[in-house]
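Run log, item B.
One chain of 337 residues. Sequence copied directly from the ordering sheet:
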Amino acid sequence: MTIHRRDTLKLVGAAATAAIAGCSDAPGLGGGSDDPDPPAYSNWLTTDDETLVYASLEWSALEEFQSDSGEDEAPIVDDENAGDDPMIGLPTGGLVAVGLAGSFGLAAFGLSGLVALEGQQSGSEFDSSVEKMVLANEAFVVTGDLETDELDERLTSESQSMFSQQYEQTETIGDYDVYTPVSGERNAIAISEGALVFAVDSDAPVDVIRAPIEASAGDTERATAEHEDLAWLAATGGDGHLVLGLYGDPESPVENQTGNESAVRTEDDYEVFTDASGVVSSLTFESETTVTGDLAAVVAEPDEETLEEVVGSTATEGSVEVDGDRVTASATWEKDA
């Protein structure tokens, strides 16, 4: 697995294609009031039976770094085993989770054109534009400048694709109009001017999308308010362009959505995190030549020596700190301009 600034959006497109084919502020160690606040995306997060898996993709930020030259560039991390470093494997797993399952999910509603695949401009089929995509357990959240009339028209029109269905508005949740299939009951999508929230192939899709909508509105308890250690994890390791967070004992997010058990690495893929109750890791594309990363974990009896050997092992420079059961790491990857 490699980090390649120019190819991040292409990876999302490739992941979505595979899914469809398969289905035909600064980190800190403290625990007090001086800890940074969790990122804004955490407003969408709730736990399910005390567990949570989430991923966040800053779509608009990645678009800014997409090369227009079309020329091949050397990747910042040029190592086929780079995914063995959890500071790369975890957040890029978040990219695959959102890209694979999220893009496939949008296709079920006839809305795949909202995000850019290779050779397209973002939102080329829509006046709406996307800023962020968030996976929150079984629900997907897409935020941006959304034109509700055009989304309504697309959802309620007769399907033009074998992968999508025709929908009808059936209820509201707060400021969101909820649409469910005219024929069928396992998908649901809710739209507003600032966000859309959807679930696919779920036993109770409306309940699934209700949780993040009500959390965002402050009508139900957010995961980071319910669990102090999760708030610390998200604030310390999860403020980046690509984020993957796991708390409790969640299943693989991609396995939940597509049946693909190997597309996303979780904390169980890394021996140093076998006893972790939570791990959050992120990557930020600072420039064409620099990527930075942060990781936070809560681990029973962490092995500091092994952590220093494994975490950030591919980085140009980095550090690992352990304070009781709390682990933090930061790293920088650079290549010559």
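Observations after the first pass:
- Residues 86-107 form the longest helix (22 residues).
- Residues 5-121+218-334 form one domain.
Flagged for discussion on Thursday.
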